[in-house]
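Quick question about two entries, pasted in order.
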Amino acid sequence: SSGINAEYGQSNLRANKMLGIEFHMPEMDFEGQKLAEILQYVILGVFGIVGFIWGYLCESFEQTFYVVASGALIASMVVLPPWPIYRKNPLPFHPVAGSLKKPAVAATNKNKSNKKKN
């Protein structure tokens, strides 16, 4: 667990809880999402064209379906898991500033005390 935190940073992990078990799953960054989308379109497009040509040559829509379905399965395996190639550009998150909320409360109390004096 500490190796994952050191390699990807705490801000790149999302805690999930399933069946009472908590585990941490790394998330894709924005550049990784863009790459995954491009790969999905390329894989599905190539398999769609090849499937259409193969089905036309075999004169079988069933063959077209098998090629396109296998392309969808391969695209899912390539795109859906958060592979390390999709996590190369994590966004740095700033810590929450707790001091920003306190002056607002103090200013509100000051305004209330001024209203009582008038």
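Here is the second entry:
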Amino acid sequence: MTTLRPFTCSDLLTYNNVNLDPLTETYNLGFYLTYLSRWPEYFYAAEAPSGKMMGYIMGKSEARQNNPRDWHGHVTAISVADEYRRLGLAAVLMKLLEDVSEQKKCYFVDLFVRVSNSVAFSMYKNLGYVVYRTITNYYTGPPDEDAYDMRKALSRDKEKLSEKPCNDPDFPIEAA
């Protein structure tokens, strides 16, 4: 039986099997520790009965200044070890992050996914995410690659305005 639990500092010593994937962004330890200290409620691990890490999700809540309707949850990273894929674990982790975002009264959840990552793109679409915009050369290469900025409206966004596609090329990538 899989255990879903808050991610801990010691997990940083056991997550290599999850991050050994060319589509998973691996960050420096300070980056993970910053998320763990600032947004611990958005950082979860999935653990096998053997104690082996199966996957994790890391995120945050944020908004641009002067736009309260931009208050949202953000999926910074989600990854599942190869041997545990296709079991629905990523969907369970996404639901955890969406639930935290609902509790924080966010309007939507967003994430970035490589245009070439068709498996992840299909999963997000099946979970109700829509393409908000495409960001040119978001991922650095070689080769550089575009990303889809995908969003899913939460209950606070009753009109689903957050899912309306953005065609403004100058729209900021990150919340300020």
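Reply: The chain has a mean pLDDT of 92. The beta strands are 3-6, 43-47, 53-62, 72-80, 108-114, 130-139, 145-153. Hope that helps.
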